[in-house]
Design brief:
The structure is a homodimer.
Chain A (H helix, E strand, L loop, with lengths): L14 H15 L10 E6 L2 E10 L5 E2 L2 E2 H14 L3 E13 L4 H18 L2 E10 L7 E11 L15 E4 L5 H10 L16 H8 L5 E6 L4 H10 L5 E5 L7 H10 L12 E5 L4 H9 L8 E7 L6 E4 L5 E3 L13
Parallel strand pairs in A: 5-6, 10-13
Antiparallel strand pairs in A: 1-2, 2-7, 3-4, 5-7, 8-11, 8-12, 9-11, 10-12, 13-14
Helix pairs in contact in A: 2-3, 5-8
Chain lengths: ~325, ~325
């Protein structure tokens, strides 16, 4: 596991990424704001609590079904802020462009960013452009960092999660990963699968203002829902039981996953949020989700359990149990 | 000039970069915070004015005389915040790593970031790691974004600059560019030139608290002092007259520039700030600079003039005048 060189799996968001963070970053960057090298931090400025987040995007192809690098980079950062309970306000962008890249394509990416930013109500306030020689990059890499303000009264921490709490998701899982994969190869499918790439800030503000006691939220990107849930339970005195039958999956996504031997619970999403709330509030949260266009297919998909602690377990369709472990590697590199 | 493809010069910080920004980014990203796609923005949160900045770093080689990618990425972002009159507080980092990169080298980069952050008194609070296939990147690319708080009473705007104002710099120019170049090839030189890569926040806070009326500051990175001064005068009703004899240049840098036919005024720095202040305050600023280890060789290097407006002119050693225009291209790609 302790490879002396970087491998693709180090970027998977799974076990190898965790190893790399533990091994390389944590020692050096240990500070009160950063216990794991997460992509988001909460910072106090006088009376204001501000959320700060960063993400680089290397998705390939740059234009895929249902989105592109530019849209992804804005929505992804808007979502990272939103799941911290912050209202996203400002975004910066850093472009690393390979010599020879067509300026028309760059314009398309920028146009997508503009549209996504307008839709989410955020302003792109600063940027930077670097160019590398042909062969030293891959079209365009894009970093977005974001700043938002956390509403008072919001207290999202996994330490508040208790056995019995409910787990919800706002719709079908695996759409983004399979859409990107289908943009690489068609696999003989007639209709393309569209990425779910979308900004979740208005959906999430609806959830937060529903009156429900929301304890934890995370957007299920790299590594999918299973990876997020593993991060939730890691080192905690509770586990997660997912009711697999309840997890919404598009027919085409399920079919393609079956062909490829993949599990939709591990496939990346870019418009899905996992919410943990008090059980008594679950109908409330479900209602708030379903009232939003991005939550029509929302479901209660599981619950927090006392045993087995620190583990994510699924109740399968045939009634058996299986463990959803943190994957070492990723079958889908460069998904975001 | 309107190339349909990206060329290296688009990343130079000079004329081609300006064209790209005008052509691709400005239309889409126009908003009150962003008139040109600068790498910094000032944002108001209630009573607090916050500075936000982003920069990507693609310097090659990753380890050069006097610094490395990690140190550069922290110092560069600390400096971008500092020249806006902000106290740098928080930094995020986004790594894009090429498959096959040695983890030991990654650790060295991270260690440098840690040291630079400690020295500057900033916390690295969030991060992200992506991996791309071998051949799709070039070792490590690093984005840092930064947040700082602007002290009340600081009003840095080129609109406040007037003819007669003085221009100062805190030391020798061109060190970084020549150091990186010498790390690529030795050119038969005995002693290496060290990059000036350093965090300027304490130097700058000393200048700001000197009581002088500081009107404009900018760190002279890509494109060097001449490019910064061109940005200062662009579209304004004043010009800049640089007294070339006063500009400090290290002997080795001058010699190497002469061999290569380059002008030290256009060569990148990573620890140099250009300051414009009221003429009556220039001795005050010079004193504040010289009291700091990074300002020992500070000089008053020129003044703001009424004519020729919007131009940067230099009084040469032999007493003639020459125009320091914005360069179209850059002789030194991937300098930062």
């Amino acid at each position: 596991m302790k490879s002396p060189e970087i491998v693709l799996g180090h970027g998977s968001g799974g076990k190898l990424t965790k190893d790399l963070v533990d091994q390389v970053f944590l020692d050096s960057f240990a500070n009160p704001f950063l216990s794991t090298l997460t992509d988001s931090a909460l910072l106090d400025f006088d009376d204001q609590r501000i959320a700060l987040t960063t993400d680089s995007y290397v998705v390939r192809p740059i234009f895929f079904n249902g989105g592109d690098l530019g849209k992804l980079a804005v929505c992804g950062t808007v979502n990272d802020l939103s799941v911290m309970g912050a209202k996203p306000l400002f975004i910066t962008c850093g472009f690393i462009i390979e010599e020879g890249y067509e300026i028309e394509s760059l314009k398309r990416i920028v146009k997508s960013m503009k549209n996504a930013a307008e839709e989410a109500g955020v302003a792109i306030v600063a940027g930077d452009t670097k160019v590398v020689e042909k062969g030293s990059g891959d079209g365009v890499f894009l970093n977005t960092s974001g700043v938002g303000v956390v509403s008072s009264g919001v207290d999202l921490r996994r330490e508040r999660v208790r056995p019995g709490d409910s787990i919800l998701i706002n719709g079908t899982v695996g759409d983004h990963g399979m859409a990107v994969l289908m943009s690489r190869e068609r696999f003989g499918f007639e209709a393309p699968i569209d990425s779910d790439c979308a900004s979740l800030n208005t959906l999430i503000s609806g959830i937060l203002s529903s009156g429900a006691d929301i304890k934890f939220m995370r957007d299920a990107t790299r590594g999918g829902v299973a990876t997020i849930l593993n991060e939730l339970v890691s080192g905690m005195e509770f586990g997660v039981l997912v009711d697999e039958e309840k997890v919404p999956v598009m027919e085409e996504v399920r079919a393609l996953c079956e062909i490829l031997g993949m599990d939709p619970l591990y496939v990346a999403n870019e418009g899905k949020v996992v919410v943990v709330c008090r059980s008594a509030d679950k109908e409330n949260v479900l209602k708030a989700m379903k009232e939003h266009p991005l939550g029509r297919r929302a479901e209660v998909v599981g619950e927090i359990v006392k045993e087995p602690a620190s583990l994510v377990t699924a109740r399968t369709r045939i009634g058996s149990r299986r463990i959803l472990d943190l994957l070492a590697d990723d079958q889908l590199p460069r998904i975001c």
